[in-house]
Amino acid sequence: MGAISFGGLATGLDTNSIIDQLTGLERNRRVGFLEIKQLEAQATKSALQGFNSKLVAVLSAVDALRDSESTLTRSATASDTSVLTATAGSGALAGATEV
User: Fold this and answer.
1) Cα–Cα distance for residue pair 73/89, rounded to 1 Å
2) What is the spatial distance between Cα 60 and Cα 42, in angstroms, rounded to a whole number?
3) In whole angstroms, what is the distance from residue 87 CA to residue 9 CA?
4) How far apart are CA 35 and CA 29, in angstroms?
5) Per-residue confidence (pLDDT) for residue 72, from 0 to 100
6) Has this prediction a pTM greater than 0.90?
């Protein structure tokens, strides 16, 4: 059995068409809202990935600083190597000494 419709019979307005248009507008509004939320989520994801990359770089730099051999290198030189040679060990302090 088919549906019986009397849209606009008494008023002369096509109420079925008006209702269809209103529900279509509401559907479009919800789809638009979801698309905006999806774009916001993608932007947040991208920002977090960028932050993560920078954090990894900082942590790598911190790890490099933990290696005392690469962080603090001391050197020793002698003005006349035929008389004196000089070396600086890992515990050498900054400064100058004259002999």
Assistant:
1) 9
2) 27
3) 106
4) 10
5) 65
6) no
